[in-house]
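Ops channel
N.P.: pipeline sanity check, posting one input/output pair.
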């Protein structure tokens, strides 16, 4: 039998997952600064299968605007370079011996505005997910009341608590989006 506490716990866990998903999505949005996490989506062909770049090379920062990729095997350099170039990140890697340098092109004002729109859209998607979870939790509580497993007072308290948790998660989304926008607009 499900209790109001179970419903709240499940909802909160799912909301936390939505926040984590948002954080992951935001790291993929490019800022003017270099960030090794930017290459997390790049996959390289390695002995016949596609593997994440981080499994065939060491990805680190050379400086604020350059990512360095150091392949662990000699023959991987060209494949890694090709994978980065063909990714949708708009990056142009250059190899220097075994080391591959990935400079971050400076972003135009227009590109920065585009990126902030993408960030806001990601934030909006996360908020919709949070609100859907709130609705599901409220419906589950109503169902308990209907089945006489909880009182209407319990329902009022539960809905107030669900709303508090929702507000907290929405505020966290707003904070993440604002921080990312600031990061993008910083020249």
């Amino acid at each position: 039998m499900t209790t109001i506490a179970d419903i709240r716990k499940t909802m909160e866990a799912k909301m936390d997952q939505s926040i984590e998903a948002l954080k992951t999505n935001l790291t993929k949005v490019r800022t003017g600064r270099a960030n090794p996490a930017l290459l997390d989506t790049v996959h390289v062909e390695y002995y016949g299968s596609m593997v994440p770049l981080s499994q065939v090379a060491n990805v680190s920062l050379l400086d604020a605007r350059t990512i360095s990729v150091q392949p662990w095997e000699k023959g991987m350099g060209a494949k890694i370079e090709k994978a980065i170039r063909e990714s949708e990140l708009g990056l142009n890697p250059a190899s220097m011996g075994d080391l591959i340098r990935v400079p971050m092109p400076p972003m135009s004002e227009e590109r920065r505005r585009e990126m902030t729109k993408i960030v806001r859209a990601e934030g909006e998607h996360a908020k919709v997910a949070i609100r859907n979870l709130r609705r599901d939790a409220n419906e589950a509580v109503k169902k308990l009341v209907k089945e006489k497993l909880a009182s209407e007072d319990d329902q009022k308290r539960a809905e107030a608590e669900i709303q508090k948790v929702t507000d907290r998660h929405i505020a966290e989304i707003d904070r993440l989006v604002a921080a990312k926008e600031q990061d993008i607009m910083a020249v």
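N.P.: looks fine end to end. The chain has two domains: 4-28+108-185, 36-103.
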